[in-house]
Amino acid sequence: MAQEKIQLIKIDLIDRPVKVARETIDPERIRELAESIRESGLLQPVILRPSNGRYEMVAGDRRYLAHKLLELKEIKAIVKQLDDRETIIIRGIENLQRVNLTASEEAKTYLILKTEGGLGLNEIAKKTGKSPNTIRRYLDFAIQSEEVRRAVDQKKISLNTLETLLEIEDPDAFKYHFEMAAQNGVTDKVARLWVDDYFKSKAGNFYSGDGGAPSSNIELEAKPVFVTCEVCHGPTEIKNVRNMMLCFDCRNKVRHK
Question: Which of 136, 60, 149 is nearest to 104 (CA)?
């Protein structure tokens, strides 16, 4: 395969993509990249496509911004004739290779590859090196509310814990348990206890003996709330927690030492 031709393209002829792949671009990262380019030059050219006498950025937006910061007039580039679908796929794959992507950014990229790039689950897996199951998980995460995605991005709750809580199909019950999890940083083990307790309560309502249909909302306020003990790592009710997260038995052990 012939090596693709690298050209020098004037910075002021390049337009950034309308949809920037990352929700946030860290200015400090751009500054660090600019310093690297100042010292060593641009090691990897950007990819552009012609657009109405100008050029549209396909891959390399951060490198382009670093050149702007350095007030450079030209940038090394490979110019390709690409249609919209090809452009979306190249951008998506490049985005997934970046560091410090939030869960929402990664999920959004998979969703774009699926909906706008027209790729199936196995095609995305092949192009990105991720398993189909991982991609499916992120696609499910992509359709969650902004509040839920933000909690995972901010590491208030893990994706695994969220997936466990999503087994709760009642919206009010899910909201209650999700907010408690985000506020207290519960583990997957505790989340599983909550979900199991929810289904036990639901089953109890269904088989109450009156022959009626189960209520759509369980009684939430009476439910115990568990957190993880910091000594034995077992679940303990939050009402027993003081300054440290100790279960009742561990607290007695510490008290008598």
Answer: 149
